[in-house]
Amino acid sequence: MLRDLSAYFAVAREQFPSLESRTYLVTHSFGLCPRDTFADLEAYKQTLLRRPLLFDDWLERLSEMYVLFERLIGGNPGSIALRESASACHATILSALKPRDGRTRLVASELQFPSISYMVAAQRQRGFEVDFVPSDGVHLDADGIAARLDETVAAVFAPVVASFSGALIDTRRIVEAANEVGAIPVLDAYSALGVVDLDVSSLPPCVVIGGTMKWLGGGGTGLAFMYVHPALVERLPAAYPGWLGDARFLDFAPDFVPAAGARRYQMGTPAMEPVYTARAGLRFVLEHGLSRLRDRNTQLLNVLAARAQDLGLNVKSPGSSERRAGVIVIEVDDARRTVEALREEGFDIDSRSARAIRLGPHWCVTSDECERAMTLIAESQP
User: Fold this and answer.
1) CA dist., res. 224 & res. 220, Å (int)
2) Helices then strands, each counted (H, E), the chain
């Protein structure tokens, strides 16, 4: 099967012009754009030349993106809202929550992305008690988070994949535990979608937040989405509604009537350039399938981990392939020097601390390139 995957993605590699000159191991930070992205960018340019005559084209593209995101995670029609960032999506959910009816606590993983942690912590100013579940800095402990949940919890926040370690959480455990006590589970899937097969149709009610800039191969920044299960919409009223969230938004009515489902969480006119440039990456993921992409990512991470072990390098990610996804973290003496050394050799990696680097191999890089990268990392150490 491994050889079959390698051959399969060798063909798919032709869709990514950036791979003609670079070995791309930083997909966890910025995804690569397929060739079709640049045709979509040209289409967006044409709307700028002729606007507002082509405003209908913008609305049509927005409608298409709703459907693509629904397909990506198995969401019902109308269950997706588009926003400018994952942070904005989390802010929308948090603003809909109030400490009332005995639900005065928020629970969050300590491995949440920083901006999400900032926002959750800030809810103390609104009367919430905030409980951050400690971590060893590497692993996501679904059982530890579930153990903090009871009838006093309004919502629980957890990443599907920890962006700084690649740890993969037991999503079902979190969602089921939250539903058992009536809390709302909010999953940050930004670092997961494209390397984790997340199907909300098989889960109890939850909120899933993601974006296009990483594994979904989106072009410009400024586009994220939020899935809200239909059963949760009435529990999460839109605290700051915008005109696109109105059921009759083209009428520009003076009073707000919430659109059906998650559409009510739309605000003003979205940034359209990322809407155009995100389509090709989404289509690539849907065409090749999350299961296959997950298998390929697992294969390449295993190659990196095995080579690191051979070279005596310390891996700072979960050791089991069932507990990690997307990225692998390697301890180094000087992260900046290592990143620069590999960049000079045509290998793109990054770091988030002074003594650790991250490698998130694009599906279309080769096992040989992964092994070569790890060799270069070892050679760059004093």
Assistant:
1) 11
2) 12, 12
* Residue ranges of the chain assigned to CATH 3.40.640.10: 38-285
Query: Which residue in the block uniquely carries the two structure tokens 């009816």?
Result: 101
Q: Could you say which DSSP state residue 382 is in? A: -
Question: From first to last of its 382 residues, what are the pLDDT tens digits of the chain?
Answer: 556 899 999 999 999 999 999 999 999 999 999 999 999 999 999 988 887 777 888 999 999 999 999 999 999 999 999 999 999 999 999 999 999 999 999 999 999 999 999 999 999 999 999 999 999 989 999 999 999 999 999 999 999 999 999 999 999 999 999 999 999 999 999 999 999 999 999 999 999 999 999 999 988 889 999 999 999 999 999 999 999 999 999 898 999 999 999 999 999 888 999 999 999 999 999 999 999 999 999 999 999 999 999 999 999 999 888 899 999 999 999 999 999 999 999 999 999 899 999 999 999 999 999 999 999 999 999 8
What DSSP string runs through 211-231? ESSSTT---SS--EEEEE-GG
Quick one: fold of 2-28+289-379?
A: Aspartate Aminotransferase, domain 1 (3.90.1150)
Alpha-carbon distance of 228 to 270, in angstroms, equals 19
38-285, CATH topology level: Aspartate Aminotransferase; domain 2 (3.40.640)
DSSP 75: P
DSSP string, 231-274: GGGGGS--SS--GGGBTTGGG--SS--BPSGGGGG--SPPPHHH
Residue 116 structure tokens: 């999400």
- AA letter at 273: E
- Per DSSP (E only), the strands in the chain are 23-24, 80-83, 105-109, 129-133, 153-159, 184-188, 207-211, 224-228, 328-331, 347-348, 350-353, 356-359
Q: Please list the residue range(s) of the chain that carry CATH number 3.90.1150.10.
A: 2-28+289-379
